[in-house]
Amino acid sequence: MEELRTPKDSLAVMTQIVLPNDTNTLNNLFGGQLLSWMDRCCAIAAHRHCKRQVVTSTINNVAFKNPIPHGAIVTIEAKVSRAFSSSMEIIADVYLEEQHPNGSRIKANEGIFTFVAVDQIGSPINVPAIHPETALEKERYAAALRRRQLALIIAGKMEPNDATELKALFYPEESTQQPK
Ligand SMILES: CC(C)(COP(=O)(O)OP(=O)(O)OC[C@H]1O[C@@H](n2cnc3c(N)ncnc32)[C@H](O)[C@@H]1OP(=O)(O)O)[C@@H](O)C(=O)NCCC(=O)NCCS
C-alpha cells in the first residue's frame, strides 16, 4: 500500500543569524542571500517528500515584505504544498525573532518555488502525491494548481485555453474540463 505523505513530513527548518557579509548597503539582509537560504531549505523539503534528487525549476514568487536587519535571527520553514507528476510546489515562510524577552516572531517574507525530481541523468521522474491536513495546507494545495497554470502560461508551456483552474476562477459557469 502507498505510504500517505503529508506536507508536515516534508518540513525543513533552517535558522540563520544575519552577519555583516550577508547585508546590503542599508545594513539589511541582502535579498540574494535570503533567496539562497530559501532555495536550500526548499530543496531539503522537496527531497524529504520524494526521497529523490531534486532541482530548482522555477522561483514562482518571492515577496520581500519586511527588511531584515543585521544581527537578526531568521528562521525559514519550507513545506511541499502540492506534488504534481515530477514537480512539487514548495512554500518557504520566513520568520524573524523579535528582540524582546517573550521570544515572539513575526513573518517577514515568503517564497514559492517549484522543484522537479530527476533521475541520474537529470530527466524528470514521478513523485508521490501529497495529502494536506491543516486548513492552511488545504488552502495552499488548492491554490497551487492555479499558480502552476499561471506559471506555465507565462513560461509559454500552456495555452490559456487549457488553464482549467484559472477559467474556473474567472468564468465559473463555463468551466467543465478536467485540470491539467
Ligand atoms: C527542471 C528540469 C529538470 C525540467 O526539465 P524539462 O525537460 O524542461 O521538463 P518539463 O518541461 O517536462 O517540466 C518538468 C516539470 O516542471 C514543470 N514546470 C516547468 N516549467 C514550470 C514553471 N515555469 N512553473 C511551474 N512548473 C513548471 C512541468 O509542468 C513539469 O511538471 P509535471 O511533471 O509535474 O507535470 C530542467 O529544465 C533542468 O534540469 N533545469 C536546470 C535545473 C537546475 O540546474 N536548477 C538549479 C539552478 S541553476
Mean pLDDT: 93
Radius of gyration: 18 Å
Which stretches are poorly predicted, pLDDT < 50 over at least 5 residues? none
What order do the SSEs take from the amino end to the carboxyl end, as H and E?
EHEEEEHH
User: How much helix is in the residues?
Assistant: 25-40%
Description:
The structure is a single chain. The protein has 180 residues and is of the alpha+beta class. It has a domain at 7-131: Thiol Ester Dehydrase, Chain A, CATH 3.10.129.10. Helix content is 26%, strand content 29%. It contains 3 helices and 5 strands; from the N terminus they run βαββββαα. It has a 5-stranded antiparallel beta sheet with strand order 1-3-4-5-2. Strand 3 and strand 4 (87-97) form a beta hairpin. It is globular and about 50 Å long. 29% of the residues are buried. The mean pLDDT is 93. It binds coenzyme A. Coenzyme A binds at residues 55-58, 84-87, 114, 116, 118, 122, 124, 148, 151-152, 155, 157.
What labels describe this entry?
180 residues; alpha+beta; Thiol Ester Dehydrase, Chain A; 3 helices; binds coenzyme A
Summarize the structure.
The chain has 180 residues and is of the alpha+beta class. It has helices at residues 31-50, 135-154, 164-170, and strands at 12-17, 53-63, 73-83, 87-97, 105-118.
